[in-house]
Write a structure and sequence with these properties.
The strands form two sheets. The protein has a seven-stranded parallel β-sheet, sandwiched between helices. The protein has eight helices and nine strands. With 260 residues, the chain is α/β, with parallel strands linked by helices. The longest helix is centred in the middle third of the chain and has 29 residues, at 114-142. The protein has helices spanning 3-6, 27-38, 50-59, 77-91, 114-142, 162-181, 200-203, 228-239, and strands at residues 18-22, 42-47, 66-71, 96-99, 145-149, 188-194, 197-198, 226-227, 250-253. It is globular and about 50 Å long. The two termini are 30 Å apart.
């Protein structure tokens, strides 16, 4: 589905609802923000890339809902709390938290610096923890939903992506543990675990020159890459009332990569 056809959607599953979506300047985050807005949501789109956010907002101009933007660095706990507070202040409520922002690298484990390790963990899991802490009090009021973007890498060991696998595995456990802690409330917490998605992140993905590519073949997948819009459609279903019975789930969208 193209951004143009999003404007023609008749669905209104998110009319009167609001969302905070991270990593929304491009890729899956942008697709999620636009898909929710197409179905009536008011969305605060967050990213470090101001130009990308502007493009996301421009693409939402003809949609049923609206997309506002905030630029910032979610590796800061203060920014996580401030951004969520802005979303609630702008829209008066919060119904959906979409933790989408992430980074990925191919690297030799023995060559990973402390700075590179801490950056990966800060973006891929710390930010999810702190946005969740900030958002949950508001989501409890609306019986809202948290959807974390994990990865097939959270569900299988992968050579040359050890730190990435650690960070995404932590996303899976964050999702499951939060789901249990808030089991007796109306809050729902789930994760989507994509395989390869055709986005700028994967298009620019590189590996060290001297890796053993025979170790990587099993991670490529037989069915090829999915699209950001495919992930956004799944996200919207799970976040909507259509997904009301889905809680604590890790939903693979990887073309069968982690099946066997």
């Amino acid at each position: 589905m193209t951004e143009k056809s999003l404007a023609e959607r008749a669905h209104s599953r998110f009319a009167g609802k609001s969302a905070f979506v991270t990593g929304a300047a491009s890729g899956v985050g942008r697709a999620v923000a636009l898909t929710l807005a197409a179905e009536g949501a008011q969305v605060l789109a967050h990213d470090r890339d101001a130009d990308g956010l502007a493009a996301t907002a421009a693409a939402a101009a003809a949609l049923a809902g609206e997309v506002r933007t905030r630029t910032g660095d979610l590796t800061s706990r203060d920014e996580c709390f401030a951004a969520v507070a802005e979303a609630v202040g702008e829209f008066g409520r919060l119904d959906v938290l979409g933790n989408v922002a992430g980074i990925a690298r191919g690297e030799h484990f023995l060559e990973v610096s402390e700075a590179a390790y801490r950056q990966m963990m800060a973006v891929n899991i710390d930010a999810y923890v702190f946005t969740s802490q900030a958002a949950i009090p508001h989501l409890l009021e609306t019986s809202g939903s948290i959807i974390n973007i994990a990865s097939n890498s959270a569900l299988m060991g992968q050579a040359y992506t050890v730190v990435y696998c650690i960070s995404k595995g932590a996303v899976v456990q964050l999702t499951r543990a939060l789901a249990m802690e808030f089991l007796k409330t109306g809050l729902r917490v789930n994760a989507i675990a994509p395989g390869m998605v055709d986005t700028a992140l994967t298009q620019g993905y590189t590996m060290p020159d001297d890796v053993d590519f025979s170790l990587l073949q099993r991670y490529i997948g037989v069915r090829g890459a999915t699209t950001a819009q495919d992930i956004a459609e799944l996200f919207a279903f799970v976040a909507s009332d259509d997904g009301r019975n889905i809680h604590g789930a890790i939903l693979s969208s990887d073309g069968g990569m982690t099946t066997g």
